[in-house]
Amino acid sequence: MAVMTSSLVHQPKIDKALKKVLRALQPDVVRIRYSLEDNFMGDPSIFFRVLLSDEAAQEHHLHEKAQRAMRLITEAVDPHELRLESYFNYRSVSEQEELRNPIWD
Amino acid sequence: MAYHDDLLEQAWHLARRELKRPKQASLRRAISTGYYALFHLLISETAKNWKRVEERPTLARMFEHTLMAKVCTKRRDDLRTFFNTRSIGDPAVAVEKHPLNISEVFVRMMGNRHTADYDSSVEWARSDVFEQLKYVQSAFASWDVIRETPLAQHFLVTLLLKERRP
User: Global pTM?
Assistant: First the structure.
C-alpha cells in the first residue's frame, strides 16, 4: 500500500527531476531508470538503475563518475523527503548489451 | 590480516575472477562477501573491547543483522538531520561524516546482500559490483579514521541494543 501511494504521488516529480539531472550527467550517464517497491525490510524504497557510458564505467574512474551521479540524483529527487530508502545500481552500455535486461532499457 | 580484511580481499578477487564474461556466481558471492567483510569488521571491533579474550567469539555471536541495520538506519537519519543544520566548514561535519558513511554503507550492502543471495532474477554487472565494493572500502577507511574515538566506540555498543519502549 505504501509503495502504491508513493508511485502515484511521487512519480511525476521524480520523472521531472531525473530528466533535468540526466542533462547535467551526460555524456557519462546514458540513461536513468527506477522502480518504486519495498526493500527487503519492508520499507518503501526507490531503486535507481544508472546506465553509464563505457568510458565512464572504466575501472580507473568508475567510482568518481558513479559517486557524482548518485550525489546529483539524490539532490534532485530527495528520496529522504519522499520518505523512501534509496538504492543505486550501475552498469555500462556494453554490460547491458550482454545482460539484456529490459528494465534497464 | 584480520578476517574482515581477508573477506574484503576475497570479495575483490571474486569480482575480478573471470577476465571476460564474469559469472553470476562470482559477482553475487562478491557482493555477499563484501557485506560480510563490513559486518565482521564491526563485530570484531566491538568484541575486541571485551577483556576476556576467550569470550570474544561468544560476544560476537550476539550481533543480529536486522537489528544492526535498524540501528544504522536510525544513526544515518539522525546524522543527515544534523548535517542539515551545519555548514560545510563545521569541524563536527568533518568527524561525523565517517559514522554517517559507515551507517549508509552497512544499510545499502545489507540490501545488496539480500538481493545477491536470494533473488536469482537479478543479474549483476561487474561495474556495479566494483562500485558496491568501493563503498565497503570507504566504510573501512572511515572506520580507520574514527576507531579510537568515543563516538565510534559508542556506535559499536549501540549495534547490540534492542529498541526499548519508553
Answer: 0.91
- DSSP-derived pairing of the beta strands A29-38 and A85-92: unpaired
Q: Does an H or E element contain B92, and which?
A: helix B91-118
- Residue numbers of A between 73 and 92 with CB closer than 8 Å to B: 80, 85, 87, 89-92
> Mean pLDDT for each 10-residue chunk of chain B (166 residues)?
96 96 97 98 91 88 90 90 80 85 95 94 96 97 93 87 64
CATH number for region A2-96: 3.30.300.30
Residue of A nearest to B22 (CA): A95
H helices of A1-105, in order, are 2-25, 59-77, 93-99
| Segments making up each domain of chain A, as ranges | 2-96
Grid cell 527487503 is found at: A40
CB A65 within 8 A of CB A28: yes
Chain B hits for A52, CB-CB cut-off 8 Å, are 127
Interface check for A42 against chain B (CB to CB < 8 A): the answer is no
- A98–B contact, CB cutoff 8 A: yes
Structural element, H or E, at residue A104 = none
* Cβ-based neighbours of A27, under 8 Å, separated by 6 or more: A53, A55, A56
d(CA A74, CA A34): 13
Least confident interval from A6-15, A30-39, B30-39? A6-15
Q: Crossing angle, helix B24-47 and helix B91-118, to 10 degrees?
A: 130
Whether residues A99 and B125 touch (CB distance < 8 A) is answered with yes
Cβ-Cβ contacts under 8 Å for B115 (sequence gap 6 or more)? A40, B31, B122
Contact between residue B136 and residue B37 where contact means Cβ atoms under 8 Å apart: yes
